[in-house]
Amino acid sequence: MRRIGSRLAISASLLSFSMALATPALAQNTQAPAAPDAPAEDDSAKQPVIVVTGSLIQRPNNTAVSPIVTVGEQAIKESGTSNLEDSLNQFPSFTTAGNAATGGQGTGGRALVNLHGLGTNRNLVLLDGHRLPASDVNGNVDINIIPEAIIGGVDVITGGASAVYGSDAMSGVVNFKSIRAFDGVKVDLMNTISGQGDGYKFNGSLAFGTHFADDRGHVIAAFSYAKQDPINGSTRPFFADKTPSSFIGTGTYIPGTNAPSAAAETALFAKYGIATPVAPTSVLGFNNDGSLFTRQLGGLNYKGPNGSSGYAIIGNNVSMPVGQQIDFINGLKRKTAFVKADYDLTPSLNLYGQFMYVDLTVHTASGGSLTQFPATTTIPVTNPFIPADLKTLLASRANPGAAFSWNGRYVGVPYKNWDENYIVQQYLAGVKGDITSGWTFDVFASYDESHHQQTLHSGVLKSQVQQLLNAPDGGNSLCAGGFNPFGDANARSLSAACVAFITKDANSTEKLGQTQVQAQVNGKLFDLGAGPAQIAFVADYRKNTYSFAPDADLVAPNAFNIFAPTNTAANIEAVVNTLPVSKKSITVKEAAAQIDIPLIADKPFVRELGIGGAARVSDYSTSGSVTSFEADARWRPVDSLLFRGSFQRAVRAPNIGELFSPPQGTQLVLGTPPASLGDPCDVRSNARTGANGAQVATLCQAQGVPGSLVSSYQFGTTATGQLVTGNVGLTPERANTFNMGFVFNAPRGSGILGDFTFSADYYNIKIKNVISTVPGLTSLSKCYNLDGSNPGYSAGSIYCAGVTRDPATGQLLTVATPYLNLGGLRTDGIEFQLAWSIPAPFMARSGRVYVNSAVGYTHKFKVQLFPGAQFLDYTGISNGGSQPSSVPPRATPTWKGLTTLGYRSDAFGMGLRWHYQNAMRDISAVNTPNNVAVGVAAYSLFDLFASAKVGGKFELRAGVNNLTDKALPFVASSQNGTDTALYDPIGRSFYVGVKFGF
């Protein structure tokens, strides 16, 4: 009975990711005939007690009260993805965060995980139960650093686990498990390429294992190399017209308040044969012949390309779509080394240790540099390259001798791009063993460090550009030919010497460190007749350190202050001011205990009944002591049915970034109105064209848009600066997490339900005192009363406080979004998992046909921005413009599923995998309910895969992802017109891999 109960509990508690990935891993858990990747052996005989992820207690029957899903090594391989995060993000519990399709503008291209959409810093990422090195100031873990060669599986707790693991585990835990001891050599290789012949990816790993000293010692060494080629938007027609930017290679003249006379403007365009009136405040571009054209109004007198050479007239404006310039898939190179060893000093005392080294470089690119963010360069009227027609207009101004503003895209300079290099090292050593009968201990210490070197290539220096513009000879004395920004042909003819003169590689260094010491004691207490009660005690100490030294040209003041003394921005074009962070640290001392009490066993209608609980006290050097606790219960009325539930009080203290970050610049994507929010002061925006347009215009003037420009004001691009600032006054978050569910595992037999498992788990998570920034787009929407938040259109509104504009031009400069203790988060839903198979001996005696499915239903996802404010409902919302860790996340679909139909045997397997996400509304349905953009239709992808064993030594696998070559959907809230992180931007792709050992 105990053996049958163990089988049922294992398959019930660990209903696996591998089911949904259609691999044979489920068979290992349910004791079906040996699967191709599972040796025919009884591991339970070697390890009668199994530690359940999510628990400090060793439960002999492996019953988990928290919903836990597991993906095996083979499951990861069969997914056909070369990145761990892509394998995990397929599942309903995960919301896509950072991956290979994020990281533009030098944000690291990090691979992050996000459970239930509650943020990447509210789940904990572990390796063998130990914390991994942090990858940024907010404590996020980049799972790119995990050597894939050593991964033996992944356990995911989809409910809170703060009482067991610490405050970070508010929404759950992802625990990567390293491979077990083995003897021999293992090699695994995989190649992937898109149907268009690009996007090549390679993953290769080599692992050695051996034992020594009469099997008292074991050593594993693993090495891996991964390479991923970037893919540029110019290779996909979808991006040809996306992100239409007004920063164009022809250069444009910005009149501002010192505008030309109406008579001079009219006369000039009459000379071109154009009778249409052109306002003196219109932005004018430069044709290659020196004549002028309007950037708006359909491009009057525009003589350049349309639909080619990077130009297009979109929305009646001459633009350069940025989508065709960016790398929508980042390049990546990763080299890893991992060694772990253990040695039995005595039969009851084991010494262990491990070392991890990662050299990771992520390459991101965002297209041509542009003249953006204050202060900008200006052109004196003495510049020798000024076209004659422009000179005529300049002479008609009220102050004809004044320098004038311009903007443009540096088409003569290589695309702005970043290399983010991470060198990560972790050292760990520990000892574990028996204290006395029924009592054990485990003590370890670890140290890790992460050095992040960010290099911005081809950064354009404003100070150098200003020197060329100010030079009487146009800069020819400084570099060959000087700099002529008037006209696309002139801008592209910039000499190599001038490119070198105005650009640099800007280097910034980020350092993170983590020291951990932990001791754990496990023991057995009394026995009520159903098995011994067990208890675990844990004490640990942790110290995290952080420092950041940006390049001098990313910090204000800088060399550009010579020309613009009031400059508050970086000297590098289109980069927001970034400030250094001196070494900061946070320490925490924790004590925790967990108890498990079996109450009844092997009774009618009570095959198993047990309760448990846990508590943790954490003392932070910055915010004091916080307490987490947990209570759980499990009941198995019959062998095939398990009910489980738990309640947890979770607490998360603010991290280093949330506390100490100085104002750090990021990019805030606004889009182009009216299709997107844009700048609400823009005359094209729905805020200005709506019923309250006059009140919005008055508010815009109060913020700095000149009265002479407000009637024609347009924002020049699709993004602006966002300043994120730490706050030492933050207090901890608090959450209540409730899980309740059941697992049914049909008794094994030969009938139609002979191999059937089904589970349903309800989760309910409420977080108070949420630490976050108010999303920049939300601040703008509320400042301009697009949802009724500022009915008086007051410039003093809390939502308007962070909006900064250039008083000369009215251009939106920055939106400040400091970390605050905001209101709350509320989400609940149900996750379903099913596995069913029947014998199918038509190809092999061991053959089985199976259907596996994982489905998630989100009942609600609500966000309260400030205490006492109304909760905003983001359920079923597409938020493609969000950052990887934003709340709300980039998508909160009501339904998300992964289903596989397949066949497997000892020697061969194949299957068809279906990814599904239901239709969603655009986020404008929440932010601007009176002007809702189009949503995203339901999205389905299909993958085909197969694997075979050859000669008992080799396993081959191959597959086609995105079998039908599904096109990208349009996402109105995204700057690029879609969300390349959430949806497949590559199209149909193929992979082939081989695994062998000896």
Keywords:
998 residues; mainly beta; 22-stranded antiparallel β-barrel; 5-stranded mixed sheet; 48 strands; disordered N terminus
Description:
A hairpin with a 7-residue loop joins strand 40 and strand 41. By secondary structure, the chain is mainly β. It is 11% helix and 42% strand. The longest helix has 12 residues. Among the domains are: 231 residues, no CATH class; 112 residues, no CATH class. It has a 22-stranded antiparallel β-barrel. The radius of gyration is 30 Å and the shape is elongated. It has 17 helices and 48 strands. The N terminus is likely disordered.
Strand content: 35-45%
- Shape verdict: elongated
User: What are the low-pLDDT stretches, counting only 5+ consecutive residues below 50?
Assistant: 1-52
Radius of gyration: 30 Å
Average pLDDT, rounded to a whole number, is 86
- Approximate helicity band: 10-25%
How many beta strands in the DSSP annotation?
A: 48
User: How many H/I helical runs?
Assistant: 17
- Taking the alpha carbons of the first and last residues, their distance comes to 38 Å
Largest sheet: 22 strands, antiparallel, barrel
What is the SS-derived class? mainly beta
List the helices and strands and how they pair.
Blueprint: H1 2-13, H2 17-20, H3 25-30, H4 43-46, E1 50-51, E2 58-59, E3 68-72, H5 73-78, H6 84-88, E4 123-127, E5 130-131, E6 151-157, H7 162-165, E7 172-178, E8 184-194, E9 201-212, E10 217-228, E11 231-232, E12 244-245, E13 252-254, H8 262-271, E14 284-286, E15 292-294, E16 312-314, E17 317-321, E18 327-329, E19 331-346, E20 349-367, E21 378-379, H9 388-395, E22 404-407, E23 416-436, E24 439-460, H10 462-470, H11 488-492, H12 496-502, E25 503-527, E26 532-549, E27 581-603, E28 606-620, E29 624-638, E30 641-652, H13 656-660, E31 664-669, H14 686-689, H15 693-703, E32 719-724, E33 733-745, E34 756-768, E35 771-772, H16 776-783, E36 803-805, E37 812-816, E38 820-821, E39 824-839, E40 848-864, E41 872-873, E42 877-878, E43 895-904, E44 908-917, E45 921-922, H17 924-927, E46 939-950, E47 954-961, E48 989-997
